[in-house]
């Protein structure tokens, strides 16, 4: 598995925005005492944040999708 960039443009911005939204959701859920659901939101936020920063998505690679161009 190579680590070439396969996430770019609007896809990258969408993933970054989704990471921010999931972070806010997780924070609200933690304060509401819903720790399990908040933990799932945190994992999603970290995943989408990594995709946006690294410009790489493993699922995109498996499916042959490249939005970096």
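^ structure tokens above, recovered residues below v
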């Amino acid at each position: 598995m190579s680590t070439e960039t396969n996430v770019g443009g609007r896809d990258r911005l969408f993933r970054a925005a989704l990471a921010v939204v999931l972070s806010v959701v997780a924070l609200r859920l933690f304060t509401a005492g819903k720790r399990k659901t908040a933990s799932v939101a945190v994992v999603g936020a970290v995943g989408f944040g990594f995709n946006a920063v690294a410009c790489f998505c493993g699922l995109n690679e498996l499916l042959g999708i490249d939005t970096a161009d």
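The CA atoms of residues 7 and 55 lie 5 Å apart.
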